[in-house]
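Suppose you are handed a protein chain with no further information: no name, no annotation, nothing but its sequence. What can you learn? This example shows the usual starting point.
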Amino acid sequence: MLKLSDFLAVSRAKFLTLTLVCLLLALAVGYYYSGWPPRSTLFLVTVVAIFAHVSVNALNEYMDYRSGLDFKTRKTAFSGGSGALVRNPRMARWALILALASLLIVMVAGLTIANEYSFSLLWLGIPGVLLILLYTKPLNQEPVLCLIAPGVGFGLLMTLGAAWVFARELNLMIWVLAVVVMLLVNNLLLLNQFPDCEADESVGRFHFPIMIGRRRSAWLFSGQLVLAYAIVIVAVWNQVIPDLSILALFSALLAPKLIKGVHRYADDIPQLVPFLGLNVALIHAFILLLALGIALD
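A reasonable first move is to predict its three-dimensional structure. Written in structure tokens, the prediction is:
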């Protein structure tokens, strides 16, 4: 018997908080420029963002099950997949249905927004649909694309697109914030690849932890995190983003422990797992503090 918990597991519902904090940042930008958006707009943008995330998660679960990867990964709270399809193979067909139905909802809601605001939004929407469909294969078979695909999806498509609609304009501030989100989400998926290098390689995936090793990838992780903070500092200094955006730097209190742990335990996965959680906490705090600073300014 299929249960709601099976669908929630396949959609990786606990990770949808990332979508929510990205939307809060976009909403703060919209409020900064033009006040609160109409409820209908807020609803449609939220639908697009949530169901896009559900679609890519469910499709990834389905394809990892079909490739056999789901049987090989080490399951942690933050990586390795949910294992829902391994436990209940009858759910596989429904995972695919969930992915495609969610994608259809995204396209209908997205076209509604574009029709109401600007069809220029399709320059984000069409690549977004392609990203959902191509994320597991072939994007995960090319290291650079595998690295930036999550960040592009959440930063340059979701956050930028939502902020564009809420603010009713697209400007340098929105681009800067989108790039910051991109770097953070790149790091989220990069670190989550560390536990599954061997399993990923066995099914044809090829990302930086496989290509250059975990220890060198730890430097890539650190570089992106430092760059995200540097962009905020430079943007505030040059008045590209509001002064109170500097509140985001409070999240840096977690950074030394995180960076030290990632470098020390890059090849010791059981010891590394708590730092996967710390990375999630830092990213959420960073984006939420950015949103708070912009809203308060």
